[in-house]
Design goal:
The protein contains 15 helices and 11 strands. With 449 residues, the protein is of the alpha+beta class. The radius of gyration is 25 Å and the shape is globular.
């Protein structure tokens, strides 16, 4: 396999990003990306060079410098990736994004930003599990993928959110998750001034300060505590009234009180795509209120949902757009389930948590790049998997729609074939390989995680 053959196809796919890099950095970046896509297991620079048969290259440090030294604008790359995703998948209509954090388990005394956090995957209400590693907060486009038959979460902007102890040791001001979320959401809103932006998030981002800071730029949908203090809007001020104007009206019943009230009139609806299911019958009520805490307030539309079958506990939601349709709010919120799927897929198939950089700059670039690669692979596979192409399946594992493993295998197959076909000799003996054996060899090269 020759280097130019492996990178020629990638250079065509990545053409929108070429102007962000110098020519030497761009050539080395293409090699790293090709090796990262083709290599199974760990995604280290060594693995990327080995799969491309570049283990003997003497200038191997040039590839390390792409991550730990060379200058290239990560924020501009994230912006171009977002616009590339929108042009392909969501050319018009509202732009729905998800924001969430994940823990990357990393070890090593030189990794300065490492901290101890609650493990959201292994922990539960009655069991607390701590994890040591790096905490990342990622913004993803929640877009329907036609050939996959569902909504995928496509990362385009990821940043490191260190712990309070790290900030104290570095002499910096600690920023909470809500502070990072405010900066990231406002940044995305600046990138898309002419599009309606809707952000869905979990309860970690249900903070009045965050919602009040971003509600004028975008709509936020998140969970709401059942005991949240809800009020009517302040009544009109009468002429001649003395003193400060009122900031809230009469207090409304909490969602917990409405849930316990037998006179509550529930609306029966069916939500499509409820956390991986096709349809889910539920009951809901909704209204508008002012979520108020002394010194902080934000107008919201609240929703209270309970399951008809009683399989999950009643849940409260909020939307900062008071005119939004309640059923549409639920349909937007359930898209965030794909965020957790993406975090699992990048660990399983793109080697997140397997890289071995210890440089601060390389650490800050590698994981966001791998998350962005998930989105790029999804885009590149569109022309290969659309048109009703059946995914890889087995008799004991029916699989109606392609998944990310099929998308990655399709991209790998294109890279392998573009490389091997160009290296065939024009003359000499040619060994014929049985079709069944060739198929098994191709799958062995394209489908390993």
């Amino acid at each position: 396999m020759t280097q130019p053959a492996a990178t020629a196809t990638l250079a065509h796919w990545l053409a929108p990003f070429e102007t962000l890099f110098t020519r030497p950095t761009w050539q080395n970046l293409l090699v790293l990306l090709a090796g990262t896509i083709l290599a199974p297991g760990r995604r280290t620079v060594t693995a990327a060079l080995s799969i491309l048969d570049l283990r003997e290259v003497t200038g191997f440090t040039n590839y390390h410098r792409v991550l730990n030294r060379n200058r290239w604008p990560t924020r501009a790359a994230a912006k171009r990736l977002l616009h590339l995703l929108l042009d392909t998948l969501v050319p018009d209509g509202p732009v729905i994004i998800g924001i969430d954090e994940t823990i990357e388990r990393r070890w090593g005394p030189k990794i300065k930003a490492r901290g101890i956090y609650r493990d959201p995957v292994r922990s539960s209400r009655g069991h607390f599990v701590k994890a040591r590693g790096l905490r990342w907060i990622s913004v993803m486009l929640l877009a329907p993928i036609p050939w996959a038959g569902g909504v995928w979460a496509l990362p385009f902007l990821t940043t490191l959110a260190p712990s309070e102890r790290f900030a104290r040791e570095q002499g910096r001001r600690h920023k909470k998750l809500t502070d990072w979320a405010r900066q990231l959401l406002i940044l995305v809103a600046r990138w898309l001034p002419e599009r309606r932006l809707i952000a869905v998030a979990d309860s970690s981002y249900a903070a009045i300060e965050l919602l009040a800071a971003v509600c004028r730029r975008l709509t936020v949908i998140t969970r709401l505590r059942l005991d949240a203090r809800l009020f009517d809007p302040p009544p009109p001020r009468r002429p001649g009234t003395m003193g400060r104007p009122r900031v809230s009206g009469a207090r409304q019943p909490t969602l917990a009180e409405r849930l316990a009230d037998p006179k509550t009139r529930w609306r029966h609806v069916t939500v499509a795509g409820w956390y991986g299911r096709t349809e889910r019958p539920i009951e809901l009520i909704s209204g508008t209120a002012l979520w108020y805490h002394p010194g902080k307030r934000v107008p919201i539309r609240w929703l209270l949902v309970r399951d008809v079958a009683g399989e999950f506990e009643p849940q409260g939601f909020l939307c900062t757009d008071q005119d939004a349709d309640p059923l549409e709010v639920l349909r937007w919120f359930v898209r965030r389930w794909s965020v957790e799927v993406t975090f699992a897929e990048v660990r399983r198939h793109l080697g997140v948590e397997s890289q071995r950089q210890w440089s601060d700059l390389a650490i800050a670039r590698t994981t966001p790049a791998l998350l962005g690669l998930f989105s790029l692979v999804t885009l590149w596979a569109e022309g290969m998997l659309d048109g009703g192409v059946l995914p890889r399946r087995a008799a004991w594992y029916p699989k109606p729609q392609p998944t990310f493993s099929d998308a990655l295998a399709a991209v790998r197959y294109r890279l392998w074939t573009s490389a091997t076909l160009s290296t065939f000799p024009d003359h000499g003996e040619v060994a014929k390989i049985p079709r069944g054996l060739l198929k098994r060899l191709t799958q062995a090269a394209c489908f390993p995680a």
